[in-house]
Write a structure and sequence with these properties.
8 helices; four-stranded antiparallel sheet; single chain; alpha+beta
């Protein structure tokens, strides 16, 4: 058995309805995943499964989600080792220590196109930053503006399938796969 992390792109079901984490956990257990745990109410799962292809796990979870909740949602899966590597590769450690909720990583299903990442720099304000690490996109965004142009620009259409998590969530998921603080 290996440990994996699954990140849902959205837990909104429309008309003010959200996925309840207990229901998400039950869905994952229903497809045979073991030791399923959730982190905060934003669609983060940690689970164990027999060693499998990541794409197969993503497809299995997406299919189960659609059957359970009546809507397709992209789900990105990473193995525990890959998640720990992602967390260790944070290019903005100082900013993360100061304001972990303003540092985010867009975890990509396939590496973000280099030209799309380069184009993100034109959307960044003076106090915002962009970096690509192993195909994922790291951002430091500003709270000074009501809505960051940078965050809006790092979307599916420009970057491909992925989902964003702030540093606080990345760190807590890393702690979960290490078995700390459960």
């Amino acid at each position: 058995m290996r440990t994996y992390i699954a990140l849902l792109y959205s837990i909104l079901l429309g008309e003010g309805r959200r996925v309840v984490m207990a229901d998400l956990k039950a869905m994952a257990e229903g497809v045979g995943l073991k030791n399923v745990r959730t982190l905060v109410a934003t669609g983060n799962l940690v689970f164990e499964a027999r060693t499998a292809k990541i794409s197969g796990l993503e497809h299995r979870l997406e299919k189960a989600f659609e059957e359970t909740f009546g809507r397709h949602v992209d789900i990105i899966v990473r193995g525990a080792e890959d998640w720990l590597k992602l967390a260790a590769g944070n290019p903005f450690p100082a900013e993360s220590a100061d304001t972990g909720d303003q540092v985010a990583v867009r975890v990509m299903r396939s590496p973000a196109p280099a030209e799309a990442v380069a184009a993100l720099h034109s959307y960044a304000a003076e106090d915002e930053k962009v970096a690509s690490v192993d195909g994922d996109i790291w951002l430091v965004f500003s709270r000074e503006r009501p809505s960051s142009r940078l965050l809006a620009a790092a979307n599916h259409k420009r970057m491909g399938v992925g989902t964003s998590r702030n540093w606080n969530t990345v760190r807590r998921l890393a702690e979960m796969v290490r078995g700390i603080g459960e």
